[in-house]
Amino acid sequence: MARQIMHIDLDAFFVSVEQAENPELKGKPVVVGGRPDRRGVVASASYEARAFGLHAGMPLATAYRLCPQAIFIEGSFPKYRRASQRFMTILADFSPFLEPVSLDEAYLDVTGFESIYGSSHQMAAAIKKRIKDELGLCASVGIASCKVVAKVASELSKPDGLLEVAAGEERSFLTPLPIAKLPGVGKKAERILKGLGINTIGELSIMPLATLKSHFGVSGEILWRYANGIDDRKVAPPGAAKSISRETTFGKDTRDHPLLTATLRYLSERVGGELRQRGKQARCVTLKLRYADFTTITRRHTLRQGSDSDQTIFDTGVELLNKALSQGKRKVRLIGIGVSNLTEPGRQLDMLDSSAQRLRQLNEAIDRIRKKYGFTAIQTGRTLLLKEIFPTT
Ligand code: TTP
Ligand code: MG
To answer: Would the pLDDT of 374 be above 50?
Structure first.
């Protein structure tokens, strides 16, 4: 039976929290991000402000030029965090399979629970109503058999939307949409794809896999799968995976360097593959060696920035391996490589210039919050660096 997955995203989140608190702001162009005479960018714009072309990431000065009558608010992160917690608590009442993606966005696997409400559609309406009644906020909900389609559906339904894509309709739903609507396709990928004459998700879905791989490396296959409405990622409660590792025991204890490194490469690729499958990046790489006498050592290295690249994992592993091997002559019985300190790739939550500090603290405190933008980057050497918007992922 098809899964029933919801993607729920609050509309104009920061602004809506301000409007819920101060009804005078309702129905007006409102911007959270700071005073227009300050440096910094728009964090959130009300839909009324968007009608003037304002959007997140736009310099405040530009926003002011386009819409001088907008109300500019500094914003208060602790307030948004509290609202976020209440939002997530409501969602958790509907299903235990909850995966927060960012402050205002989550996946909910409701498979089997929807019958309590009559249907998924009615369940989504009940969720929206509770969010409205208790928080005064509007949520947009996408329902589909997989994450990527649910995500596209909720975005498409905004604001105050509810859009269900029936099982079996995933491809036909995605087909006519412009490629930029597909999670994973950011500005750079969009440019490349348009250069190849690909404008719609449907056109992307029928591209040869090999062509996509040659342009985007490993991400090419993910793009292709998403374009075809294929996405088997689970709705994973946060903290489900704290680390990922693979190890192998040799048939015969060995000191053979090419064999050790080749094994390490294979294991690194498997670890990297799982990282990408989970849409995570790792900050920490750990090598494990068990020697013939069964003594086991682990050696760890912290990367300067998170990575999901096979090559980075492998390179780090080899360095640790060479160091370890230089310290003795014992043969190796088992080799393993693991990654930990997993983070979500992505968006700069510290766009609010004035409260960058608080935002950074928030990022650290809620390390499970997925950053919205930025499926990064597999550098295979021969392909380009892909650093793109990869929302939920
Ligand atoms: P979004 O869900 O991307 O935006 P939104 O909720 O304001 O509007 P939409 O109706 O399109 O969902 O982000 C949620 C909050 O995260 C947003 O209100 C403010 C914050 N944010 C930033 O601080 N910087 C950014 O660049 C973006 C995109 C969001
Ligand atoms: Mg939102």
So the answer is: no
Sign, CA torsion 256/258/260/262: negative
Query: Which one of 18, 48, 105, 344 is the catalytic residue?
Result: 105
User: Among 77, 79, 78, 83, which Cα is nearest to 11's?
Assistant: 83
Amino acid at 306: G
Query: Is the CB of residue 10 below 6 angstroms from any atom belonging to ligand 1?
Result: yes
* Closest C-alpha residue for ligand 1 atom 15: 13
pLDDT per residue as tens digits for the range 245-303: 999 999 999 999 999 999 999 999 999 988 888 788 999 999 999 999 888 899 999 99
DSSP collapsed to 3 states, the chain: CCCCEEEEEECCHHHHHHHHHCHHHCCCCEEECCCCCCCCECCEECHHHHCCCCCCCCEHHHHHHHCCCCEEECCCHHHHHHHHHHHHHHHHHHCCCEEEEECCEEEEECCCCHHHHCCHHHHHHHHHHHHHHHHCCCEEEEEECCHHHHHHHHHHHCCCCEEECCCCCHHHHHCCCEHHHCCCCCHHHHHHHHHCCCCEHHHHHCCCHHHHHHHHCHHHHHHHHHHCCCCCCCCCCCCCCCEEEEEEEEEEEECCHHHHHHHHHHHHHHHHHHHHHCCCEEEEEEEEEEECCCCEEEEEEEEEEEECCHHHHHHHHHHHHHHHHCCCCCCEEEEEEEEEEEECCCCCCCCCHHHHHHHHHHHHHCCCCCCCCCEECCCCCCCCCCEECCCCC
Pocket lining: 54 vs ligand 1, CB cutoff 6 Å: no
Length of the chain: 393
CA gap 21, 137 in Å, rounded? 10
Phi, psi of 154 (to 5 degrees): -65, -40
Task: Please tell me if the CB atom of residue 155 comes closer than 6 angstroms to any atom of ligand 1.
Answer: no
What is the model's pLDDT at position 84? Answer: 95
* 105 included as an active-site residue: yes
Q: Which residues contact 348 (CB under 8 A, 6 or more apart)?
A: 371, 373
Between CA 148 and CA 265 the distance in angstroms is 30
Residue 49 to residues 26, 61, 178, Cα–Cα distance (Å) = 11, 14, 24
